[in-house]
Design a protein that fits this description.
The protein is built from 6 helices and 8 strands. With 198 residues, it is of the alpha+beta class. It has a single domain, classed as Alpha-D-Glucose-1,6-Bisphosphate, Chain A, domain 4 (2-Layer Sandwich), CATH 3.30.530. Strands 1, 2, 3, 4, 5, 6, 7 and 8 form an 8-stranded mixed β-sheet that branches. Strand 5 and strand 6 form a beta hairpin. It is globular and about 75 Å long.
Length: 198
């Protein structure tokens, strides 16, 4: 599935561009992510995901496959697999930086998160990108206040909270689930009545 997101960061273009090329700075801004290693243009790490009562831990790698410093655009490919075998995720991400940051993602997922469907994944993706943009803005904020906030971020980075897919989606999930729950309730009541009448 293809996803498109846009966001702005209140910092100079060159500063945003340099940060996006530095996994050690940018990975911790991503909710649930922990960077475990960097080797040239490749990097590795984990992403924690929470889907209702189920916790998933994706372990994987990423690589910058194209970097155009003149156009301020980059392409990276990343893939990961849940450590318990509950699914996989692969993505090709194209980023353009000018007055705003434009992110185009070609995403392929299997397993439980795929059951959410394209529409819901797009909504959750948008909120995750917004959280990322806010963290990146804090990371790039100049002065003493920024330094304090960056120190706080580094403490939080030691053990990041998982991405809560249901919690992040919030009301949209409930709106989609209510009709299903209503049908399920009707079926249960119907079955119980039939059993009582026997």
């Amino acid at each position: 599935m293809k996803l498109e997101h846009r966001f702005t960061v209140p910092a100079p273009l060159d500063q945003v561009w340099e940060a996006l090329l530095d996994p050690e700075r940018v990975a911790p801004c991503m909710p649930g992510a922990t960077l475990s290693g960097v080797d040239g243009k490749t990097f590795s790490g984990t992403v924690k995901v929470k889907l209702g009562p189920v916790n998933l831990l994706y372990r994987g790698t990423g690589e910058f496959v194209d970097i155009d410093p003149v156009a301020h655009s980059l392409v990276l490919r990343a893939s990961g697999k849940d450590t318990r075998g509950n699914g996989t995720a692969r993505a090709t991400v194209t980023v353009h930086v000018d007055e705003e940051v434009r992110v185009e993602t070609d995403l392929s997922i299997t397993g439980r998160p795929a059951q959410l469907g394209r529409g819901l994944i797009a909504e959750v993706g948008g909120k995750i990108v917004a959280q990322f943009a806010e963290s990146l803005a804090t990371e790039l904020e100049p002065g003493e206040a920024g330094d304090v906030q960056q120190q706080h971020l580094r403490v939080v980075r030691d053990e990041p909270e998982p991405i809560d897919l249901i919690g992040t989606a919030g009301v949209p999930v409930l709106k989609r689930l209510l009709p299903v729950l209503a049908v399920a309730l009707v079926v249960i009541v119907f079955v119980l009545r039939r059993r009582r009448n026997r």
